[in-house]
């Protein structure tokens, strides 16, 4: 079943720069997709269209067969986007307050908000820090807090934009564990990265962007030998038939 689809998606900035052009892709429910490309290839611009944070100059995005522009609130509930800069996504004075922000904006009953906050913090292992101030968290903990904030909205699709940027090894392990756990639980996962070695071994599909267009789309084991021509570092080692570093067992 196709859950998310982009049709002829094009975005032109006011200065005339074409960020993405005629992008067509379909993501199936439960799929684990990695979108890769060199800096400036259009990765972030593309995924910000998925829940309407950016609107296209031409084309459309469909969620479960319906254009997201028909109901942007629904799209932003069902498609959670986790930014590269966790600090830009954290708005609460406490960890629990930050997770509550989204559900409260949906005007849910206080009991439901409290329930979602509790469940989301448990899911990312931050329950013991519920009253902590977010700026005191480590980089990995901040990334997990943003994941909790998205989980509280009950999404079906979770999009990570460069989830490992700026993290030390323990932070990378924390976040990668969380991504894999969410996928096992049935979420559709889209991970944007230019660094394949941490995540590619776990992916069902690899999409490569270059100059705002999809130039490769298929199984990682079929595409991995070509990534360097697009300015992407090629991972080494072997795991599940895909060349990659094995970060976790």
TrEMBL record:
Localization per Swiss-Prot or TrEMBL: Cell membrane
EC number per UniProt: 3.6.3.-
Topology in the lipid bilayer: Peripheral membrane protein
PROSITE patterns, per the entry: ABC_TRANSPORTER_1 (PS00211), ABC_TRANSPORTER_2 (PS50893)
Pfam families: ABC_tran (PF00005)
Protein biosynthesis is among the record's keywords: no
Coiled-coil blocks: none
Key words of the record: ATP-binding, Cell membrane, Hydrolase, Membrane, Nucleotide-binding, Translocase, Transport
Gene Ontology MF term list: ATP binding; ATP hydrolysis activity; ATPase-coupled transmembrane transporter activity
One cellular-component annotation, GO: ATP-binding cassette (ABC) transporter complex
Domain ABC transporter, chain residue ranges per copy: 4-236
InterPro entries attached to this UniProt entry: AAA+_ATPase, ABC_transporter-like_ATP-bd, ABC_transporter-like_CS, ABC_transpr_CbiO/EcfA_su, ECF_ABC_transporter_ATP-bd, P-loop_NTPase
Superkingdom of origin: Bacteria
Stored CDD domains: ABC_cobalt_CbiO_domain1 (cd03225)
Database matches in PANTHER family: ENERGY-COUPLING FACTOR TRANSPORTER ATP-BINDING PROTEIN ECFA1, HEAVY METAL TRANSPORTER
Family: Belongs to the ABC transporter superfamily.
Protein name: Cobalt import ATP-binding protein CbiO
Native organism taxonomy: Bacteria, Bacillati, Bacillota, Clostridia, Thermoanaerobacterales
